[in-house]
Write a structure and sequence with these properties.
By secondary structure, this protein is α+β, with helices and mostly antiparallel strands. The chain has one domain (about 10-185). About 20% of the residues lie in helices and about 40% in strands. It has 4 helices and 9 strands, in the order E-E-H-E-E-E-H-E-E-E-E-H-H. Strands 1, 2, 3, 4, 5, 6, 7, 8 and 9 form a 9-stranded antiparallel β-sheet that branches. A hairpin with a 5-residue loop joins strand 8 and strand 9 (about 130-135).
């Protein structure tokens, strides 16, 4: 499904981080290779399903992640952190936050950037006693929290849930400002 505007609060991407067994520490993970806030930062999620994602990378981010030229699909795993706003007005938790392992299935160069198709292979669950993730296989069945979020968005689109307010979200003022500037930059690049 198309990722609705305003529901992606944060996204971060890491490329080629080795996972020893099924554990990934924050030390091994390191700083993200690309970060986007509320649609800004040169990276956006354009499509979401329970088993995959489609990311749009602006040219500078594509270069940083080494996707600037064509060729064979990259091997190695990517990791993606998502913070998604729940569209349900009475949701138990306001956000769905996920740390995912993914394999690149598609690379398309278009409009001064790159579209990446990712198949979700694992899901990271924070360890309680250490600064690390325990990675669990998600390649076959997907991620239940992402399934729930996709279902909420689909119900919103069918009128079962109210549409989100297009107004200012004061809890995320800085991200809102970044998003407005990012939209302005995209419009300027199109002209």
């Amino acid at each position: 499904m198309d990722a609705p505007t305003g529901f992606l609060r944060e996204v971060a991407v890491w490329r080629d981080r080795a996972v020893a067994g099924n554990r990934l520490s924050l030390e091994e993970l390191g700083a993200p290779d690309a970060v986007g806030m509320a649609g800004g930062g040169g990276i956006a999620v354009t499509d979401v399903s329970t088993r995959g994602l489609r990311l749009r990378l602006w040219a500078d981010v594509a270069r940083r992640l080494r996707f600037e030229s064509g060729g064979a699909l990259p091997s190695g795993e990517m990791h993606v952190y998502l913070k998604l706003l729940s569209p349900a007005p009475c949701a138990e938790t306001r956000y769905c936050t996920l740390f995912l392992g993914a394999r690149v299935t598609h690379v398309e160069h278009a409009d001064g950037g790159v579209l990446l198709g990712l198949h979700i292979t694992s899901r990271g669950v924070p360890e309680k006693a250490d600064k690390a993730f325990r990675m669990f296989d998600a390649g076959r069945y997907g991620v239940k929290e992402l399934t729930r979020w996709c279902d909420e968005v689909a119900r919103m689109g069918r009128g079962i849930l109210p549409a989100p307010s297009p107004g200012l979200d004061l809890e995320h003022l800085l991200a809102e400002i970044d998003a407005v500037h990012a939209c302005g930059d995209v419009q300027a690049n199109r002209n």
